[in-house]
UniProtKB/TrEMBL annotation, chain A:
CDD domains: TM_PBP2. PANTHER family: INNER MEMBRANE ABC TRANSPORTER PERMEASE PROTEIN YCJP, MALTOSE TRANSPORT SYSTEM PERMEASE-RELATED. The chain crosses the membrane at residues 9-32, 76-97, 109-131, 143-162, 188-209, 244-265. This is Carbohydrate ABC transporter membrane protein 2 (CUT1 family). It is found in: Cell membrane. GO terms for biological process: transmembrane transport. Gene3D superfamilies: MetI-like (1.10.3720.10). It is a multi-pass membrane protein. GO terms for cellular component: plasma membrane. The keyword Membrane applies. Residues 72-265 form the ABC transmembrane type-1 domain.
UniProtKB/TrEMBL annotation, chain B:
It holds the Pfam family ABC_tran. Keywords: ATP-binding, Nucleotide-binding, Sugar transport, Transport. This is Carbohydrate ABC transporter ATP-binding protein (CUT1 family). PANTHER family: MALTODEXTRIN IMPORT ATP-BINDING PROTEIN MSMX, MALTOSE_MALTODEXTRIN IMPORT ATP-BINDING PROTEIN MALK. It comes from Kushneria indalinina DSM 14324. Residues 353-373 are annotated as: Disordered. The keyword ATP-binding applies. The lineage of its organism: Bacteria, Pseudomonadati, Pseudomonadota, Gammaproteobacteria, Oceanospirillales. GO terms for molecular function: ABC-type maltose transporter activity; ATP binding; ATP hydrolysis activity. It comes from the Bacteria. The keyword Nucleotide-binding applies. Residues 4-234 form the ABC transporter domain.
């Protein structure tokens, strides 16, 4: 008996050890950012892994900068618009690709997937021209447009997969009840697609919220910047000082909304990510 | 309340012909059952009537008006689906009310109709529940309620009982029959179960491979099947089929030689040129009378099936086919014994090599005389 219990105990310890390593690996950078942001700049280069005294001066410094507050506002506008547009277009496209039989459906699906394989840099200059032509340079519109291009493929793909799993008879029941395609989509299918929509919406939000390259390229003035760029451009008192404290405080501030969103939608995301895998 | 006319309806999916030249008249208030083996096109025909599939050729008329191009609600139909297809996120109330709300009925009318429908189907206490909190039979009733609520002219059912267990199936079958009597609306019902068809229908339409094999009341189909297919499909256990040789016997019909039973004269008329043609004799198990055989005559009993009110004997023929015959229960016969069989000639059917039933002799006789004079 003892040998077997020993083995079980060891296995359990090993398992939790692995979990601990994983947790530290994933969370430590963020934890260190939090710790750093809570230290006054005088203590910045004393390495410590614990907060002795909470000092909010970095946060005050960041939030008192009008450009940073504007950047947060811009980010919120851009990310929410991207989510809304991506979900609307994604849902309607998924309806067509998932429930309407037409010639070339598979080709369209492949094209959609293919588009998402281009690296950002490859389309940067072309997109720049498009944005200039549409007169969207240095405005949130330009960012919304370019982020939507990159979030739509996976939104369409995931929503189509889910849409296909909804039984045909449900749609037919709605047709017999006199529902138009739009009513069927919004009143019957959308409530059933909530998990998938929460998942894709959140992924689109995170992508738009964290994007850096386009945000840097397509905006010019401080008032139009989004958060990632604004953080990168936070400068210290002199050329020789990197203001780590305010940068960390800013990073924590912009990460918190993501964490909150994930916690809110956590259960839906889990069911969304697995619902496709198992029948029933 | 409506009559329905199908005129040479055809349906093709690409090159596959699924429904061929189906013509049918359904009267106001009639209960019609489409029955046939799996894949014969029952569901497709129902969906053509519903407007869920487009008709390739032919006309569909409701109350004399061509409806080929109308949507399901414009046609005034309600449909109950095999999987129920209730809206999972809506309460029973909302499921029933959905169609009414879309039809822009007034709130008060909606409420009235939903409650009345729920009352008829005994769903009063369940209106706030979600479909997942209902039993199979209750879901079934909600599905019927949803189809009924808009008071459609025609109610369509696609195998509505196939997801229920045996006991509930009988109960729900009775409820549907009762509902038809109460609502008096035209109903079309699809099933592959001939017992359901026999018990519910005013008229049965037997489909085979996209064709209508025969239409008629349950009794007509049972007593005068037009083809071997219908004869084998209607009735349980199945009709027995035996290959026989036949000779015309004047006005009396024809004389056949049945292996193991003997010679009989059947009141069926052979077509003129089919003397000595190989025919198939069909006799239902309940029309075969077994008697204990002497010695090695007759057939050996390979199995006795005891059903309480009756028993079925399974008999082995000389060419190792199986015949089934009914006997009273408890059966006086036992496995391994031998019996001889007899049957009343007017109860037997004859089918030619195309499977068509031969007509009764006297009818033919009259028509022959008519052609002579
Ligand atoms: N959308 C479709 N495309 C191509 N063929 C189809 C389509 N729908 C049905 N069929 C074919 O039409 C034939 C009839 O199908 P249908 O569903 O009407 O059969 P059924 O009589 O209802 O059978 P069951 O008792 O199994 O439900 C089948 O052979 C089927 O394969
Ligand atoms: Mg079917």
């Amino acid at each position: 008996m003892s040998l077997r219990t020993l083995k079980a105990v060891l296995l359990k310890i090993g398992f939790w050890l692995l979990v601990a390593v994983l947790m530290v690996y994933a969370i430590f950078p963020f934890y260190y950012a939090v710790v750093t942001s809570l230290k006054p700049s005088s203590e910045l280069f004393e390495v410590s892994y614990w907060v002795d005294s909470v000092d909010l001066s970095n946060y005050a410094a960041v939030l008192s900068q009008p450009t940073f507050v504007a950047a947060i506002r811009n980010s919120v506008i851009v990310a929410l618009s991207v989510v809304a547009i991506a979900l609307l277009l994604g849902l309607t496209a998924a309806w067509a690709l998932g429930r309407v039989r037409f010639r070339g459906r598979t080709t369209v699906m492949m094209l959609v997937l293919g588009v998402s394989m281009f690296p950002q840099v490859a389309v940067l200059s072309g997109l720049f021209e498009v944005i200039r032509t549409l007169d969207l340079y240095n405005s949130p519109g330009g960012l919304i447009l370019s982020y939507t291009i990159f979030t739509l493929p996976f939104t369409v793909w995931i929503l189509t997969t889910f849409m296909r799993q909804l039984p045909d008879e449900l749609e037919e029941a709605a047709i017999v009840d006199g529902a138009s395609p739009w009513v069927t989509l919004t009143k019957v299918f959308m409530p059933l697609l909530w998990p998938a929509m929460a998942t894709t919406g959140l992924l689109a939000f995170i992508a738009a919220w964290n994007e850096f390259l386009f945000a840097l390229t397509f905006t010019l003035t401080d008032s139009q910047r989004t958060v990632p760029v604004a953080i990168a451009l936070i400068s210290g008192g002199s050329q020789y000082e990197l203001p780590w404290g305010p940068i960390m405080a800013a990073s924590v501030i912009v990460t918190v909304p993501l964490v909150v969103l994930v916690v809110i939608f956590q259960r839906r995301i889990v069911s969304g990510l697995t619902a496709g895998a198992v029948k029933g | 309340m409506a009559s329905l006319t199908l005129e040479k309806i055809n349906k093709r999916f690409g090159a596959t012909r699924v429904i061929e030249e189906v013509s049918l008249d359904i009267k106001d208030g009639e209960f019609v059952v489409f029955v046939g083996p799996s894949g014969c096109g029952k569901s497709t025909l129902l969906r053509l009537i519903a407007g869920l599939e487009s008709i390739t050729h032919g006309d569909l008329m409701i109350d004399g008006q061509r409806v080929n191009d109308l949507t399901p609600p414009e046609r005034g139909i309600g449909m109950v689906f095999q999987s129920y297809a209730l809206y999972p996120h809506m309460s029973v109330y909302d499921n029933i009310a959905f169609g009414l709300k879309l039809a822009k009925s007034e709130k008060q009318t909606v409420d009235e109709r939903v409650r009345r429908t729920a009352k008829i189907l005994q769903l009063d206490g369940l209106l706030d529940r979600l479909p997942k909190a209902l039993s199979g039979g209750q879901r079934q009733r909600v599905a019927i309620g949803r189809a009924m609520a808009r008071e459609p002219k025609i109610l369509l059912f696609d195998e509505p009982l196939s997801n229920l267990d045996a006991a509930l199936r009988v109960q729900t079958r009775n409820e549907i029959a009762h509902l038809h009597e109460r609502l008096g609306s035209t109903m079309i019902y699809v099933t592959h179960d001939q017992v359901e068809a026999m018990t519910l229908a005013d008229r049965i339409v037997v489909l085979n491979d996209g064709y209508v094999e025969q239409t008629g009341s349950p009794r007509e189909l049972y007593e005068q099947p037009a083809s071997r297919f219908v004869a084998g499909f209607i009735g349980s256990p199945k009709m027995n089929f035996l290959d026989v040789d036949a000779r015309a016997e004047g006005d009396a019909g024809c004389r056949i030689q049945v292996p193991g039973i003997g010679e009989r004269v059947l009141p069926r008329r052979l077509a003129g040129d089919s003397d000595d043609a190989p025919l198939t004799l069909g006799v239902r198990p309940e029309h075969l009378t077994p008697t204990t055989a002497a010695g090695e005559a007759g057939f050996r009993i390979v199995n006795v099936e005891y059903l309480g009110s009756e028993a079925y004997l399974y008999l082995e023929t000389s060419n190792s086919d199986t015949l089934v015959c009914r006997s009273e229960a408890p059966s006086p016969f036992a496995r391994g014994e031998r019996v001889t069989l007899d049957f009343a000639p007017q109860r037997a059917h004859l089918f030619d090599h195309d499977g068509r039933a031969l007509p009764p002799a006297d009818v033919e006789q009259m028509s022959t005389q008519a052609t002579i004079s």
